[in-house]
Design a protein that fits this description.
Blueprint: H1 7-10, E1 15-22, E2 26-33, H2 40-50, E3 61-64, E4 67-71, E5 74-77, E6 85-95, H3 104-121, H4 131-151, E7 153-158, E8 161-166, E9 182-185, H5 199-204, H6 214-221, H7 225-237, E10 241-244, E11 252-255, H8 259-264, H9 266-276, H10 286-294, H11 302-308, H12 318-327, E12 331-334, E13 336-340, H13 355-362, H14 366-374, E14 379-383
Antiparallel strand pairs: 1-2, 1-6, 3-4, 4-6, 5-6, 7-8, 9-10, 11-12, 13-14
């Protein structure tokens, strides 16, 4: 499912400007694209941080006002300058709430390039008196901002300059991987470029089949458990896998608020049907599939739902359907957390450890452990 991404989410560059330290006027903006995006009043309020003390030179700085300013202050020492040094800072500006960390390498590389140009030809320090140099810098910064916003890459060739910039794609932090999590490949195994991964990941990948949990993968691959978790977390970061919970017919699931999106979205319906159909049989009817999903609630187990609506007669694989719906965000697992009111009982029965975790720790089946708790009047279950 794709959602429209706003400029704020992407963190597009709203402005790019060059600040210099003038030997009499102090910090000034010598070039800004677009003009006057940063007002004189705003700049004066933060100029001491944009051209900072020596301790912050060649360090990434971020200033947050109504917008977010990212810079990398530089100094070039030479007795040809009025104060024996030339200070400048190339800054990019994003929305206040946007993530700007992806621009740090870009700003650093641009700053070092401008430093080299200044040392070679006084490119920056002469632009106020040299219209050609000023137009060249304006075009330089305008190209950088336009290309990075549009394509996330920029290639600049100007005289002796050959500069390549690329904005690294921002990804969400990967989820914490637990022993009872089940990794599921997002694409067929044969389409994964195995040679790009380290040797440990290559050992782990063949055992990621959408059924094995982390502990089982560790045993089958003969790889230490924490290493498997690290590999799986890295694969999740690059969208090679998603994490699901261990499937059992005693599991409880509930529809999420996104379930209504399935009702009228034909491409999603087709995607679902192609994933869950039984090989060699006709495709299931979408209405039957949707009604099956809507049967889930905080009380019914998978087994109980299957007794009400028999998936086998409706020509779809209930296990694949539940996994697909969970990974796409239409169903969510309702976990049980046992709480004991008796002192001296296991610390796992304090409402913070789910049944999947306890089953794995005790090497006991879910059904057997659930029966044990149901017949114990001192234990209550929290479902969430």
């Amino acid at each position: 499912m794709t959602e429209e991404i706003s400029d704020i989410d992407r963190g597009d560059i709203k402005c790019i400007f060059l600040c210099e330290f003038h030997h009499t006027a102090g910090p000034t903006i010598s070039c800004q694209i677009p003009q006057d995006f940063i007002s004189k009043e705003v700049f004066e309020s933060v100029s001491v941080y944009i051209i900072p003390k020596a301790q912050l030179e060649q360090c990434t700085i971020t200033i947050i006002l109504d917008c977010k300013i990212l810079g990398y202050p530089m100094r070039i020492e030479d007795n040809k300058y009025a104060r024996n040094a030339f200070y400048f800072n190339l800054c990019v500006v994003c929305d206040r709430n946007a993530r700007a960390i992806q621009y740090e390498p870009v700003v650093q590389k641009l700053s070092h390039t401008l430093r080299d140009l200044e040392m070679e030809s006084s490119f920056l320090s002469t632009q106020q008196e040299n219209p050609i140099a000023r137009a060249r810098l304006t075009n330089f910064l305008n190209t950088v901002m336009t290309d990075l916003n549009k394509n996330k890459v920029c290639k600049l060739t100007d005289g002796t300059i050959s500069l390549y910039l690329k904005v690294i794609e921002l990804r969400k932090d990967p989820p914490t991987v637990k022993d009872w999590d089940v990794p599921v490949l997002t694409k067929p195994y044969r389409k994964i470029p195995h040679e790009k991964w380290d040797l440990t990941t290559q050992k782990v990948l063949p055992f990621i089949d959408g059924h094995n949990h982390i502990t089982k993968i560790s045993a089958k691959a003969d790889v230490e458990n924490n290493l498997v978790k690290s590999c799986v977390q890295n694969l999740a970061y690059y969208d090679v896998i998603k994490l699901d919970s261990l499937f059992q017919y005693s599991n409880i699931y509930a529809p999420t608020t996104k379930i209504h999106q399935l009702y009228a979205n034909r491409p999603l319906q087709d995607q679902c049907i192609n994933c869950i159909k039984i090989k060699g049989e006709e495709k299931p009817i979408w209405g039957d599939v949707f009604r099956f999903l809507c049967r889930f609630n905080h009380c019914n187990t998978v087994k109980q739902v299957c007794c009400i609506v028999n998936p086998a007669t409706l020509r779809f694989n209930e296990r694949k359907l539940i996994q697909w719906a969970c990974l796409e965000g239409f169903l969510q697992r309702v976990h049980k957390y046992p709480v004991s009111v008796c002192e001296g009982t296991s610390q796992s029965w304090n409402g913070t450890h789910c049944m999947d975790e306890i089953c794995l720790a005790l090497n006991m089946s879910y059904g057997k452990l659930n029966d044990k708790f149901e017949h114990d009047p001192t234990v209550s279950m929290i479902c969430k």
